[in-house]
């Protein structure tokens, strides 16, 4: 896999990171600064929206689910304020439907947590129309299964019985799967 060099960032190195997981946000900010970005962080939709409106960055990494709302609201503001802003949406609750929604409103890419800083940089700096290189640590088959179950569960408005029926699964089995943490 070819790593993207710092010179590929361009003259405007501004990067907005929006995530409500403070330890992750601090680690990612430090990693992105080491890679040459001028980082600004926000821990909520409100804070991210304020920064996006006042100082629209060249790049952004936005968490999908934030305590005070949906990260796609920040993506929309970024695209309205600065069309050339390259946005990567990160989430611990990855689903095809939300990935499609993110890309439709202007996100460059969509990555599942935990995402490696280099994977994020590769997604941010990939050429227009060019796919970034595949991740170093792709999702396991168990994780893909869990993601599919979560997507169907969300599409069924978090109704366990309806989700179990659509997945052709026993309701109690589904409840046990939903009660567990996501596999790596």
TrEMBL record:
PANTHER family: PROTEIN PILG, STRESS RESPONSE REGULATOR PROTEIN 1
Coiled-coil blocks: none
GO MF term (any one): DNA binding
Entry-linked Gene3D superfamilies: 3.40.50.2300, Homeodomain-like (1.10.10.60)
Lineage of the species this protein comes from: Bacteria, Pseudomonadati, Pseudomonadota, Alphaproteobacteria, Rhodobacterales
Protein name: Photosynthetic apparatus regulatory protein RegA
Keyword Protease: no
Family annotation (InterPro entries): ActR_PrrA_rreg, Bact_response_regulator, CheY-like_superfamily, Sig_transdc_resp-reg_receiver
Top-level division of the source organism's lineage: Bacteria
Record field: transmembrane: none
Entry-annotated residues carrying 4-aspartylphosphate: 63
Function (record text): Member of the two-component regulatory system RegB/RegA. Involved in transactivating anaerobic expression of the photosynthetic apparatus. It is a transcriptional regulator that is responsible for activating expression of the puf, puh, and puc operons in response to a decrease in oxygen tension.
Keywords from the UniProt entry: Activator, DNA-binding, Phosphoprotein, Transcription, Transcription regulation, Two-component regulatory system
SMART domains membership: REC
Domain Response regulatory positions: 14-128
GO biological process, one term: phosphorelay signal transduction system
Pfam families (UniProt xref): Response_reg
